[in-house]
Amino acid sequence: MEKERLVQALQQEQHQFEAWQVDVFYRFLENIERMGSPLGLTEAVGDALLNDHLLDSLRALPIIHHLQPSSIVDVGSGAGFPGIILAIACPDLQVTLIERMQKRAQFLLMMQLKLKLTNLTVIHDDLKNVKRHFDAVTFRALTTMDPTLVRLLLQVAPQIIAYKGRRDVVMLEKQLLEEAGYRCRVEELESLYLKKERHLLIVEP
Ligand SMILES: C[S@@+](CC[C@H](N)C(=O)[O-])C[C@H]1O[C@@H](n2cnc3c(N)ncnc32)[C@H](O)[C@@H]1O
């Protein structure tokens, strides 16, 4: 991917980052393009990587700025989405990644060192073994937010910020969790440029 393409896409989404941040985003994408497929992290390259992963991860920024957590834990970070992207975008936010697969956790640690992300910590473990506490937990995966998963996520932070897709699907998850006694709200993630419908499901005890 050309760096110009990244700069253009960030401008289209009206993101304003400092030059060093754009540079770190770009170096991260370069590493994913080179190692993502051989390491079994992601097959996405080019515009798919840019749109479906980097820009998608950034879509939650307005809500995160509004909620003002000092620390976030990203559970099941995989190739680093959204955790690494949020760490680059918010240098004052302490971001911890929890990833149970060894080769993914090793890649995340390598990125932390290579990109010199001093606000990033990587934990190679299963969520269920993590005893530390954070202000909020982010979660981006295909998995449904059922009450069992929510109980586990709320053990590490009092607020879950889950990246979700279509409104009808997320509203069903919300209903299920509300019936189980959780407080939930859904925020639509606007995009000037991306066409896919995206939402955040915010869950609290
Ligand atoms: C579908 S991938 C999503 C990766 C990334 N968040 C994204 O959106 O591209 C889910 C990741 O969560 C990790 N994972 C699943 N359950 C976990 C758990 N209980 N503790 C830690 N990591 C977990 C898996 O190893 C996998 O890398």
UniProtKB/TrEMBL annotation:
<keyword id="KW-0963">Cytoplasm</keyword>
<feature type="binding site">
    <location>
        <position position="81"/>
    </location>
    <ligand>
        <name>S-adenosyl-L-methionine</name>
    </ligand>
</feature>
<comment type="similarity">
    <text>Belongs to the methyltransferase superfamily. RNA methyltransferase RsmG family.</text>
</comment>
<feature type="binding site">
    <location>
        <position position="76"/>
    </location>
    <ligand>
        <name>S-adenosyl-L-methionine</name>
    </ligand>
</feature>
<dbReference type="Pfam" id="PF02527">
    <property type="entry name" value="GidB"/>
</dbReference>
<dbReference type="GO" id="GO:0070043">
    <property type="term" value="F:rRNA (guanine-N7-)-methyltransferase activity"/>
</dbReference>
<dbReference type="InterPro" id="IPR029063">
    <property type="entry name" value="SAM-dependent_MTases_sf"/>
</dbReference>
<protein>
    <recommendedName>
        <fullName>Ribosomal RNA small subunit methyltransferase G</fullName>
        <ecNumber>2.1.1.-</ecNumber>
    </recommendedName>
</protein>
<dbReference type="GO" id="GO:0005829">
    <property type="term" value="C:cytosol"/>
</dbReference>
<keyword id="KW-0489">Methyltransferase</keyword>
<keyword id="KW-0949">S-adenosyl-L-methionine</keyword>
<keyword id="KW-0808">Transferase</keyword>
<feature type="binding site">
    <location>
        <position position="140"/>
    </location>
    <ligand>
        <name>S-adenosyl-L-methionine</name>
    </ligand>
</feature>
<keyword id="KW-0698">rRNA processing</keyword>
<dbReference type="InterPro" id="IPR003682">
    <property type="entry name" value="rRNA_ssu_MeTfrase_G"/>
</dbReference>
<comment type="function">
    <text>Specifically methylates the N7 position of a guanine in 16S rRNA.</text>
</comment>
